[in-house]
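[Solved] Which block belongs to which protein?

Original post:
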Amino acid sequence: DERVTARWRNAAEQRREDLQKLMSLQELYQTATDFSLYHIVLVIADTSSSVQEKEVRTSAWISIFFPPAASPYSSSELGHAPAAWQHGLFPLLMLRRCPSFLSRDVCASPTPVLTAVSQDELQQRATRLLSEMATALRDSSAMWDVRCIATLLEYCNCLWFQSVGSAALAGDGAESQASAHASLPTASGEAEEGRPRSTTDPQRAARSWVALTVLLQRPFHFTLGDVVKFYAAMLEQLPSWLKDLQGMLPADPSRRRPALSEDDVYVHLGEVVLAVLDQWVTQVEGGRADERSVEDFANAWPSVEGVLSRLRSRLLEVEGEAVRVVAQRLLKDLRRSEA
């Protein structure tokens, strides 16, 4: 890839020769780390008893999305700036665009240079990565830390929306998001054709892919009720996990990464919670849920009302003109949900 500096290309050529020889897991681990291939680090950590799983797990997941400054595709190491600066936010996903993340085949052609961005790019690349990781890692693997993964993905999701803006949802993007939301997996994890359409607007649907796609599928297999409980806890514990996560992010040499406030992330998660509740209500009212699911929904509703009440109170406290506008719209939708 000509975008990568000669230093990294030469290092890669040398290491490729070394890889033709039999190497230990520790040596492979070091190679993956040196080139910031942290998705491979996770696979090796899952296989090796010599790697400390707990120490590696969180830092590796974060480094997949936010690699160190000294990595081949970071903005400070590229020979030329990305055509679209937003792609530099998540370089392993957005700039290194080989068709597969874990293919044994070498990427035969240079990764394409994209000049435009769309809101569903992060969703497409992240879900592709997770799908491949699900085939490489055991479902019971300690690498599948759902709290770490879900909070990280939602932070990235919020960051991407802040960077791309709502304009990218126009045209084909809006249609693809609405279509994708209409065929989201059910609580069983399988897409269901012909079921009642959700009334969630395309913008909110575009934000809900972590909750309504990733967590419902392998290896997590959440039900919609599980998702609601999980996000209620995520909202309640937001100050703690957000501070921890931001404290682990590497420096941003480009200084393009938006600084997300607690209010930014809270409002984003509020949008997601409403999308999940809308999907759950649609499923129950449409007669597609079994008797047990309907009973679970009825039993959970008092807790849901508590979540909505806390959400409403917190949204009244947000600061900043831009985020306050979104919060006001959310409050209107909340009142409609509670009616």
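(Second protein starts here: sequence line, then its structure tokens.)
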Amino acid sequence: CGTPSKPANVPLVVATGSRAWAQYQHASHRPLTAAAAAAFCCRAVGAFPVQRRRRAVNPNTWARRAVAAGSRATSTKIPRDAAKHRWNGLFQGAYCINLDRRPERWEFMRAQFARLGMDAERFAAVDGRSVDVHQLAELGLITDLALQRYLLPDSMKLFGFDLTAGAVGCALSHLFIWKDIVRRAHGQLDPLPFLVVEDDCAFDPAFDESTLEQRLQHVPSDWEFLFLGGQDLQHCHHLLECGNGVRRHYAGFKETTAYLVTAAGARACLEVSIPLRWQIDTHLSENDTHAIRRGGIDPKGWPVISKCDPNDMPYTVKPMSYCLWPPCVAQHRDAFATDVQICEH
């Protein structure tokens, strides 16, 4: 994969909730490095060229407020009432991304999972505050332009696009989960998808197994990535209606609060997200029908904001993505401030 033969010794706070990361740590008895992170991501899709680079100088009223936990949560499993819920028939695993320093958010999610009767694995998120971003750039995991813009004062950053410490941690967390999904689905003939939720996700009170099952029946069979919620920031989403309660995904639809992803979708997500140039939800939307027409993504270009044209509305094709609308989830902004953006606008 092109990683240095002598890894640097800058530790990363990584997803210890992941079996793969835990196995690495137990075997090596040392903290993970940025070089190891690069190799981990690269192996997910076979071979990403990692080159040495020169250093460049959060609307919802659905959920109750979370009650801060008195101590750090240690359990990563939620008891499931098999007589009432059959979530395993819809997806084969559920990840909940949660920072170690956010135990109150894990308690909030645990309460929801218990109500839903859903088995969920806590995936300890990468803490962007502990990541050496310069080294990530040297390893080719983020571009030089992304590094330069990362170092800009907050007042000069492009809100919702430029990388922040929180955005780097968020992106790496999703990357590691996608890699784990590819690993877990390997060898399965027809693997079920996986559910991924962030720890500020508030499920609609009416959401349950039967609701999801019914709504999935209207999703086109070629789907690889299905957003359960998000924000239509450009207000063009209605132009992409493709079924009862289903819309195609496009660049104006943001957030990764909760989604279902297939193994093929996870692989596609890895392919479109390395190296990182912008926040992860931009990478998940930019490979659309207009990008194909232009001949692909310009790795040195700026995010393309498409016009709302009812006769030529672009939509995401890699991964092949759809959205449930009305949504099943929303970010619980009333209780939890953003860990990704510069500030809430």
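Accepted answer:
You had them paired correctly. Confirming on the second one: The longest helix spans residues 165-185.
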